[in-house]
Design a protein that fits this description.
Mean pLDDT of chain A: 93
Number of helices of chain A: 7
Shape of chain A: globular
Largest interface: A-B, 44 and 44 residues
Helix content of chain A: 25-40%
Order of helices and strands of chain A: EHEHEHEHEHEEHEHE
Structural class of chain A: alpha/beta
Radius of gyration of chain A: 16 Å
Oligomer: homodimer
Distance between the termini of chain A: 26 Å
């Protein structure tokens, strides 16, 4: 890790929550340079310190504002609650051109969080696409995993479906899925994001109905190519 | 099987295709009285004969028109291609009052069958609900299973997600899933049907991308209650 310019750098916007910290932990551990972003740079710095402490300090995680994080990184992951989705994207969109945006958002509408309710665009990821424009590749991923497990090195018994605006962008994000120790699948074009976002509501409902806390999915009957 | 009035009877509209015959085979084997329906009663009779032959004749499967099949059964399953969905439902809706309709339809739009493209109602099952009215419980199920495997007694490595207009209807259909030798999950209200219908496009895309033929899904991290 001597030449950080050769590393892929990843921004995690809204990265002070459980999801964001879990992903930061796994990617930093895998050797990526991770920038945790938040509306408050101070909070981002605290979250980055937490993650660095877990990693025993030998990996590259820092904290800054969402805007700076988006500027510094080649791949920008957004993990904010849906209520802050549009505003966050608007605030960073000028920094996203030519990059890949990974949308982790699930458009849950409380209190009926186990009922699929999508925005007019069709899904949060398609809405993101409308906001950031065609100069940005947009992918959707990581909606269905149990983020608590990311922070404790546990095997996460859930596959990650990756949709996106190009095959190349999806392949790039599947590499990140694997770097985080998970199994990723190309789930097709961005129009398919409704399935992976909506699956979160189905899994919340299954947890409630069957008394589980971490329902997930696995793809069966197919092998990933090397 | 002496008193057929005590058995639950199931109609399978459009039941002359692979899906329909596979389901007819499994349910008849489990002791249900199965009526295969088709636009052509003759074709339905031939399909019923095929299934009876596989079952060595000791089970109850017969063939008739879609309308007669819907009239005879307490649970009506529709397995027609999406292009025939509305017309078939219009033709039988007067026979459905007080019953459960199970929609297996996936609203694929050729040639882009691996892209999710839903009707205005939100999903085929919600469209069915609009057509048949509120006196019918509507469920969606069986969209993601490999129907070829139903006919050869193989273990099907795919769970069945069941959405529907009431908890009671979903529970009833989960019993049918289990009778067919599959694992069923309550996937919530009818609004969630977009996930299970759309998942079929995702799985078609995975088959194409990864060279598989029977990609499916399993729910992980949860146990079904007894």
């Amino acid at each position: 890790m001597t030449d950080s310019s050769l590393q892929t750098s990843i921004a995690i916007l809204g990265g002070t929550g459980k999801e964001g910290k879990g992903l930061a932990y796994r990617w930093a551990k895998a050797g990526y340079q991770v920038h945790i972003g938040s509306r408050s740079a101070d909070k981002a710095i605290i979250a980055a310190n937490d993650v660095r402490e877990m990693l025993k300090g030998e990996n590259s995680v820092d904290g800054m504002s969402n805007l700076e994080a988006a500027r510094e990184a080649g791949i920008v992951v957004i993990t904010v609650p849906y209520a802050a989705h549009r505003e966050t994207l608007e605030s960073v969109k000028d920094e996203l051109k030519g990059k890949i945006l990974v949308d982790v958002t699930v458009p849950l509408v409380p209190p009926k969080v186990s009922t699929v309710q999508m925005p007019v665009a069709g899904s949060a990821a398609q809405e993101a696409r409308e906001i950031v424009g065609v100069d940005v590749q947009v992918c959707a991923a990581f909606q269905n995993i149990s983020h608590e497990h990311l922070l404790d090195d546990a095997d996460v018994e859930c596959d990650v479906l990756v949709t996106g605006t190009s095959k190349e962008a999806r392949a790039e994000i599947i590499k990140l899925v694997e770097a985080a120790g998970l199994r990723g699948w190309d789930a097709g074009p961005i129009e398919n994001s409704v399935v992976i976002e909506g699956l979160t509501s189905v899994l919340i409902g299954i947890n409630k109905k069957y008394g589980s806390t971490h329902a997930g999915i696995k793809i069966t009957g197919a092998q990933r190519k090397a």
